[in-house]
Design goal:
77% of the residues lie in helices and 0% in strands. It is mainly alpha-helical. The relative contact order is 0.13.
């Protein structure tokens, strides 16, 4: 997900963790960003070089989805006066957990995706094999029946590739961070503001309108007299756990779903582009309509 020419930085969790450590050591936020910039962090360099008066959250928001999420938490903590160090440390853990989820899903998807790509080349391999074995494949494919086989076979290959790519994309975890809104509201409430104020600040920071899940947790906390901050953090943790489980289930189901484009498109394309020209080449000498030039 891109908002500008700047790419999403995969080390967002590590940068936030380092920033939290610097802030806990008593270093001012501006100086902490400068130190990270001097250490080679490209996002920190943009923050440190931003014109005076520019909000840090605005700079972070331009660096992709991960940093947009960090910008929301930073803006909320900055607005209500919540402790930046502890807020960022907890959020760094959430980012690390989300990255681990994406890594787990990526590993699970690697084998079926590679298999699908390999099988997708089978029709072309069949043509090459026919040429190696001495079949007059090129001449056969110029005949009316051969042209029809070629057109339909290539079309099936393209359909199989697009179908496979769509299935793989559908199995990928969404780029958003589960439980982000609950975490952001918890950060605001940890500063001692009211629930209404916390929700307004999170919405203004880009966290969206209160979701039904966030509202349900806040209502439960109010009725039970329990700490809303802890309930919100528990809800966010559970949301990330569900995301990881869903990701693994999607990856597991992908192997069987990829059989559909293989069976319905790739295999027929293999027969049309590989087997059919071989048969036509064999029959060309005894079948007048095929032997005609």
């Amino acid at each position: 997900d891109m908002r500008t020419h700047v790419t999403d930085t995969p080390s967002g969790a590590e940068s936030v963790q380092q920033l939290a450590v610097l802030l806990e050591a008593g270093i001012a936020p501006v100086r902490a960003w400068q130190l990270l910039a001097e250490a080679g962090d490209p996002v920190a360099a943009d923050v440190a070089s931003a014109p005076p008066g520019t909000r840090i959250s605005e700079v972070l928001d331009a660096h992709g989805e991960t940093w947009r999420q960090i910008a929301i938490v930073w803006s909320v903590a900055e607005t209500v006066g919540a402790p930046l160090a502890s807020s960022l440390r907890r959020f760094a853990g959430a980012l690390t957990d989300a990255q681990e989820t994406r890594d787990d899903v990526g590993v699970a998807l690697a084998e079926p995706t590679a298999t699908a790509r390999l099988v997708g080349w089978m029709p072309l391999v069949a043509i090459a094999l026919g040429l190696v074995l001495g079949f007059d494949m090129l001449s056969t494919l110029t005949q009316p029946v051969g042209v029809a086989s070629l057109v339909v076979g290539v079309a099936l290959m393209l359909v199989a590739r697009r179908w496979t790519a769509r299935l793989v994309r559908a199995a990928q975890p969404p780029p958003d961070l589960p439980g982000l809104q609950a975490d952001a509201v918890a950060v605001a409430l940890s500063a001692g503001v009211s629930v209404e104020r916390a929700l307004a600040v999170v919405t203004a920071a880009g966290g969206g309108d209160p979701s039904s899940e966030t509202t349900s947790v806040l209502t439960l906390a109010q009725r039970a007299g329990a700490p809303a901050v802890e309930l919100l953090r528990a809800s966010a943790t559970d949301a990330r756990r569900r995301r990881r489980t869903d990701g693994r289930l999607k990856a597991a189901r992908l192997s069987s779903r990829l059989l559909l484009p293989m069976g319905l498109c790739t295999l027929p394309a293999f027969l049309l582009l590989g087997v059919a020209p071989m048969l036509l080449s064999v029959l060309a000498g005894s079948t007048p309509i095929l032997a005609a030039r």
